[in-house]
Amino acid sequence: MPRNVDVLADQNCGYCTMGCRIGAKQSMLLTYLQDAAEAGARFVTSADVRTIETDQGRAMGVVAKVNGHTVRVSTRAVVVAAGALNTPALLLRSGVGGPRRPLGDICGCIP
Questions:
Q1: Comparing C-alpha atoms, which of 61, 1, 54, 4 is closest to residue 29?
Q2: What angle do CA 94, 95, 101 make, to 5 degrees?
Q3: Dihedral, CA atoms, 30, 31, 36, 38, nearest 10 degrees?
Q4: Cα angle vertex 40, ends 55, 35, to 5°?
Q5: How does pLDDT run across 79-107, given as a tens digit for each residue?
Q6: What's the CA gap between 2 and 75, in Å, rounded?
Q7: What is the pLDDT averaged over residues 26-40?
Q8: Using CA atoms, how far apart are residues 82 and 49, in angstroms rounded to an integer?
Q9: Average pLDDT, rounded, for the chain
């Protein structure tokens, strides 16, 4: 399988695990986010998403705190990527799940 990096032998490339110090790795920053920006997407950084707004079971946007201000974003799609602990917390705060669709019933934490 080919490596997901431009080959730069003199830089000892292809062995980094936590990002690339010279920006050669074809990471999400250089691929999907670049494509989204070119298509007109706007990005909000340092946002503390508090809830997902739903309408009839469909995600319609998010409410977040950004620098002390409440920001409401309406969108056609919501992607939650808040990690193993924060994703279920966000979904529960947003009212996602319930008796017929339990949230986290197959997940567990191993200390």
A1: 4
A2: 130
A3: 70
A4: 105
A5: 888 888 898 889 989 988 766 666 666 65
A6: 36
A7: 83
A8: 9
A9: 79
